[in-house]
Specification:
alpha+beta; L-amino peptidase D-ALA esterase/amidase; Ubiquitin-like (UB roll); 2 domains; five-stranded mixed beta sheet; 11 helices; 15 strands; globular
Length: 398
C-alpha cells in the first residue's frame, strides 16, 4: 500500500532495545503546532499509566508529539509507572522545546514490568533524529508485539474540490476485545476541522470498527486510538457535523478505522479464519451485540471453526444462552454462509452436512443470525482458536 504523507506529521523510529529481540520498538510522532488531536482509550479499570497520563494531558493542552513504545506496557506498575510515563514525556519535550504536558505517551507489551528508562534516554534522541514525513511504514512495524504483519491505511479523498489525506496505522493481535478504544491506533489527516467534529468523527468510527472486533474477549489495559488533524489542506474548516463535507470526511475516517480493525482480526494470534458474526433484525443495538459477542467469544464455536467442523449445534447453543429476553426460537434463523442451518427451533430440513462443510472449509466465513424481532442489524468480526493461539500466549514472556 502506498502510504501518503500527511503534511505537518513527522515520524521517527528507532530500536531502543526495549523488545528482547532487538527490533525497532520506539516511535515518536511530531505534530505540527496548532494541530488538533482526538482520542479514545480503554475502559479497563487497571488502565496503564500512559493511558491515564495521555488522557490528562489531552484535556489540558494541544499535543505536539506522541511517544509510543513496544515491548513493555507500563501497566500494573503503580506510582512508579506514572513517574516513568511523565519522565518519558519530559524527555521528548526537552528535545522538541515544548512542555511535557504536550506529549502523549503510549505503551504496549508485557504487563507488570517497569519501563527501562535508561533505554528511553538513549532511544528518544535517536528516534527524533530519524523524523521523516514518510516514516509511517517504519513506525507501523516498530509498534508491533505479537503481530505478524504491520497494519496501515492511506487514502486521498475529495471534499468539495479539495484533496484531503488520511493515513493511519494500528497494532494488535491478541488481548483483543476493545471497549470504546482500540489496541493501539494512530491516524492523521491534513483536513481543516473543528475539535468537536474531529472528536465526533473518531468516536463514531471507533464504535462501528474497533468496538466490533474480538479475538479472545480480553480488553487490554493499554488500548488507545488517536486522530490528529493538522489543518494543512487547502479547504474551508469543517465545523458543522450536519454538513455534506463532514459526512464525506466522517465516512472516510470510518473506512480507515474499519480497515485497520479488520486487519487486526486477520492477524489475530494463531488465526486461520476471518469470521463475520452478523445479527439481523434485533430489537436493540445492545441485544444484537449481546448475541453476536456470545457467538464470537464461544470457545466451542471458535475451536469448531479452527477444525472446519460444521458443528452447528454449538452456534445454536451460543445464541440460546446470550440472554435475549423472550427469545422466540421458532422465529429465528441461523445461516452458515448462504446455507440455512437452523429454522423453526431446530436443524433446517434442507440442511446437509456437505453444505455446512463446504462453508466451513473457507477462510472467510459469515455466521448470520436472523432474530426477526426488530429493526437493528450489527456485525462483529472475530477469529477461530487454534493450537498456535495457546502456544503464542503460553510463551508470551519467554
Amino acid at each position: 500500500m502506498n502510504l501518503h504523507p500527511v503534511a505537518g506529521i513527522y515520524l521517527g523510529t528507532t530500536a531502543a532495545k526495549i523488545k528482547k529481540n532487538g527490533n525497532p520498538d520506539l516511535v515518536i510522532i511530531e505534530l505540527k503546532e496548532g494541530s488538533k488531536t482526538a482520542a479514545t482509550f480503554t475502559t479497563n479499570a487497571f488502565c496503564a499509566a500512559p493511558v491515564s497520563l495521555a488522557k490528562a494531558n489531552l484535556v489540558s493542552t494541544m499535543p505536539r508529539a506522541l511517544v509510543i513504545n513496544a515491548g513493555n506496557a507500563n501497566a500494573g506498575t503503580g506510582e512508579q509507572g506514572m513517574m516513568d510515563a511523565k519522565a518519558t514525556c519530559e524527555l521528548v519535550a526537552k528535545e522538541l522545546g515544548c512542555s511535557g504536558e504536550q506529549v502523549l505517551p503510549f505503551s504496549t507489551g508485557v504487563i507488570g514490568e517497569n519501563l527501562p528508562m535508561e533505554k528511553f534516554e538513549i532511544g528518544i534522541p535517536d528516534a527524533l533524529a530519524n523524523l521523516k514525513i514518510d516514516g509511517w511504514k517504519a513506525a507501523s512495524t516498530a509498534i508491533m508485539t505479537t503481530d505478524l504483519v504491520a497494519k496501515t491505511f492511506s487514502k486521498v479523498i475529495d471534499i468539495n474540490g479539495s484533496k484531503v489525506t488520511l493515513t493511519g496505522m494500528s497494532k494488535g493481535s491478541g488481548m483483543i476485545h476493545p471497549n470504546m478504544a482500540t489496541m493501539l491506533g494512530f491516524a492523521a489527516t491534513d483536513a481543516k476541522i473543528s475539535q468537536a467534529c474531529l472528536e465526533k468523527a473518531l468516536k463514531d468510527a471507533v464504535n462501528v470498527s474497533f468496538n466490533r472486533i474480538t479475538v479472545d474477549g480480553d480488553t487490554s489495559t493499554n488500548d488507545a486510538c488517536t486522530l490528529t488533524a493538522t489543518g494543512e489542506a487547502d479547504m474551508p474548516e469543517i465545523s458543522d457535523s450536519n454538513s455534506l463535507d463532514y459526512q464525506v470526511f466522517s465516512e472516510a475516517v470510518t473506512e480507515m478505522m474499519t480497515d485497520l480493525a479488520q486487519k487486526i482480526v486477520r492477524d489475530g494470534e494463531g488465526a486461520t479464519k476471518f469470521v463475520s458474526v452478523i445479527v439481523e433484525e434485533a430489537k436493540t443495538e445492545e441485544e444484537a451485540l449481546k448475541v453476536a459477542h456470545t457467538v464470537a467469544l464461544s470457545p466451542l464455536v471458535k475451536t469448531a471453526l479452527f477444525a472446519s467442523d460444521p458443528n452447528w449445534g454449538r452456534i445454536l447453543a451460543a445464541v440460546g444462552r446470550a440472554g435475549v429476553e423472550d427469545l422466540d426460537i421458532n422465529a429465528l434463523e441461523i445461516y452458515l454462509g448462504d446455507v440455512c442451518i437452523v429454522r423453526n427451533g431446530g436443524r433446517a430440513e434442507e440442511y446437509t452436512e456437505a453444505q455446512g462443510q463446504k462453508v466451513m472449509d473457507q477462510t472467510d466465513i459469515d455466521i448470520t443470525i436472523w432474530l426477526n424481532r426488530g429493526p437493528v442489524n450489527e456485525t462483529v468480526w472475530t477469529t477461530d482458536f487454534s493450537y498456535d493461539y495457546v502456544k503464542i500466549n503460553a510463551e508470551y514472556r519467554s
